[in-house]
Amino acid sequence: MTSLSLPRVLHPRKTSLEIERELFEKSQQQALQKAINSNEVPVKQKHVRSAIIGTFHTQGARTFWAIVTKLPAMEDQIVAWKLCHVVHKILREGHPLCLVDSQRHVKDLDEIGKLWSHLNDGYGRMIRLYASLLMTKLEFHKRNPRFPGHLGVTPEELESIAGNDINNYFEMSVEMFDYLDNILDLQAAVFGSLNMARSNSMTNTGQCRLSPLVPCIQDASKLYDYCVKILFRLHYALPPDTLTGHRDRFMKIFRILKEFYNNTTNLQYFKDLISIPSLPNSPPNFLIQSEFRTYVTQEVVVPQEPEEEPPAEGNLIDTTESDHAESSSTISQTVYEQILSEKEFLKNQCEKLSLEINGLVRQHRNDLKMLESKIKTLETELVTKDHELIQEKKDKEDLMTQAFAAVQSKGSEQKAKDEKFQKLKDFYYKLRDEHIQKLREKAEIEKRLRASDIKLEQIETEKKALIVEINELSERVNRAEEQMQQTTISQIEELEELRKDKELFNMETEILKKSINDHCRERDDYRAELTLALQEKNELKLKTEELTDKLSTTDVQISGLKKEKDILLEDVLSKSVNGSMEVIRHAVMEMDNPAFVTLTCSPDYLMGLKKDCVASLESSKALPRDDIAQIIVTSNEISNKLSMFILYGGATCNTSHDISFSDKMSEYCKGLGEITLSLLECLKKRENTNEKVSEALSKLEEISSCAESISSSSTAENKENLADMLENEMIEMDRTIEEAAKRIQEMLEKSRADDSGIKLEVNSRILDSCTTLMQAVRVLVQKSRSLQAEIVLQGKGTSKAKEFYKRNHQWTDGFISAAKAVATAAKFILTAADKVVTMNGKFELLMVAAQETAASTAQLVVASRVKADKKSSNLQQLTAASKNVSTAVGTVVAIAEGCRQLVDEAEDLDTSNLTLHQAKKLEMEAQVKVLELEKELEEERLHLASLRRRHYQLAGEG
To answer: Closest by alpha carbon to 62, among 106, 112, 97?
Structure first.
């Protein structure tokens, strides 16, 4: 009994609450996995609704975040994009505590955004912007916790949140502007990632990108409404200049938001998902508070989704992989989606054309109405002016009658004459003023009728001339009055002058009549222009009818152009691939040309062409069959690179001494040409090329093997004499070092016998150090020969030295090169020491020679160490000898440097007894010397670089 009761004690039964919680978590996990998967389809709302209901069940979003943090959002960009969409829905429609629970996961959102921001294409940039939007939303709710997730508050609640404080309104508007900027940046990235071919609004790919814009539109609508209300309140309380930045930022957001609404309204995908309000044509004018009374809050309406039918009783199969089936069906419907996208594009183009035509028709109608009203107004004004001109003629005739009467009554009494003259003068001034007024009215009429500026200037000139003449006439009348008061003779003269004035007045009247006739002709011209305007109106009507006819034929033309485009693309593909095949055929035919036998090519160069040929063949495997441009580019690349390989392969055959082998390799090259022609034919027919590519690659390998055989046979001839060459170089190196050491000893003895003082000290120190260096080099060479003999004795699997050197020809070449370098360095240091001792050289030459000796001996040590046993005593002795050489080189360099300083100190210039002129002269000579030395230094550096390049070239050839 105890054994039966033990498991019950260890494993107690779960309570009903625990079982219910496990079932709930399992259902939440399944719903979120179905909503957030790697299929490029929009998120299903039923799965999101289950997650939202789950947040109310758990009174928060802890369970939600515990599940979604385990999803592969850092591995798949589709999962990360859908995760951001679901989180946005949860924050908007979930339990109010979801905003608080999500604050702990801001870093997770930031990491997801930073990771995918490095992806230049696909969803990378959109994920980063969406993550930034979610972090901005959480930060906004953290600063303003009284705003719910869906942002919906009443005007009273908005006033309560701000505390009716202008400073709070000011800060809140800035936060809302930042929120709106993030939304607009995200929508711009989404629309920028769409293309009409594969990811438009009628495909699953396009809907996957566009579906998150629905909650973005809902947030943007609320934020825009609050921004308008807050800005009106701020402008009521603050000066307009203080809010210039707010107005500019709102204008920018208004323009982009209106464009965002227009783009989404034109898409068929959003028509059933959301009802988007239309913003006014112009933004609100916050400087006019009365416009706030006419402002109407526009709400975004999201229609309720229909309830899905319950599953049938027999449908008990798990459908967790239904999304995978949908993705596979999506792939099979690619062609159908492309047709739908092109149809949608053409439909949008037709709608745009119809809108433009309607706009033109409305504009022409408005212009015609304005012209007709203007014509009626002008005709009325012309009739009025005609009556005024007739009245003016009558007034002028009365004036002329009165003037004649005044002239005839001059013989009467002086008082009556004065009164009549005064009346005539007053009436003349009145007529002049009326005439000036009429001329002004006439000028205004001419401006309305768009008369030319030249005629207006002429009229103004005539007016000024008349005024001047009238003033002169007034002066004459005044003078006549004075003369009439003096004598009767003056009265007679005055009458004569009045007669002359009468004649002048008649002339002026004729001029006025002429100007009136000119104005009548201008009126006739304007009537002719009005007639032309009516004709243009009729022409516009005809053009409108023609545009309507063109619109009806647009669909037929588009379908015909599409068929022509397909035919042209097929023709271009066929001609391009045929040209590529002709290149291959020409290469194969050139191999049979008798003149081709004289061409040769090295096997190494042919092997260098193989890599590009393999790359071009491999690129044809993953080639999309509907991308004609890429097929043409690939076929041209294959033909160019493989034709070159075939020609150079034939040239490589000519370097072989075996005729049968050469013919075999030539046949391989021709076979590669035939396979390439078959491959290009497959590309032309858009068939699978994997089999042909495999055949071509195998043929390339066969040709490469033949080229390697030719290369190995050509280099075998030079390996026979390596042992003798090595022995000769080693003997020459020993002889050179012995001669250098003997020569240095002779120079030392000669310097001790002939020199004294500083020169003897310098020469002794330099020659002693060079003697020490030569002895160290001699020991190093001896140790190197001992180690070489040990390496040859061991044999590495062979018994004879020649066979060993032949088998290891590359190592032998390196050893020979090192021996040559040591001999050259010994000669160099001997020459440098001789020049320094005889005062014909510089100490720097000896330093360079010593360093060159160190480098050459290091090369000899490295060449010896390659084949030696790591535990060999000879190798250890060689290493010690190498260190002694390095020490001796350092000693030579140090002694040369010290001797140079010693000689410089001895040759220092004594400037104590120099005059000003002598010091200046020496200074200028020193400057000239410095410039010459700098120029020589630059030339020597260029010379050194050239010598090094030549040395490397000769070393490579050796």
So the answer is: 97
